[in-house]
Amino acid sequence: MRWDPTDPAQRRARYALLSGMWAVFFALFSWPYVSLLLGALALYWGSSALRAKPRTTNPDTPAPPPGAGRPQVTAAVGGLVTASLALVLVASTFTVQFVYRDYYTCVNDALTHEAKQSCDRLLPQELRGVLGAGNS
């Protein structure tokens, strides 16, 4: 069975896959609000594509063979997985910024590079190499 662009379930499955992939892309490149929007849309489109009933074109034609009635499942599941990954990345970004709010406020208020480096004392020793001002 081929892809039918007039079938809403298949179209939503493709939208879910594309939206989920772009959500991961935007989450990795620090555009969390766009990623959040695209991830939520991908979850909606993916779940609605999986819940849709297979469309029959003509009631007079015989039923399609089992397993051939839902070609959108792979794309919909891929969209759900990538959207979930993007939402986890965004949630972890927001959590880190919330937990270490003092550090981020200190870095944003620093006027010199030395002042920015002195903000590293607000981070735990293990995270200074990852989040520290020496990495920017």
TrEMBL record:
Keyword terms: Membrane, Transmembrane, Transmembrane helix
Transmembrane annotation, as ranges: 21-45, 73-94
UniProt name for this protein: Membrane protein
Lineage, opening ranks: Bacteria, Bacillati, Actinomycetota, Actinomycetes, Kitasatosporales
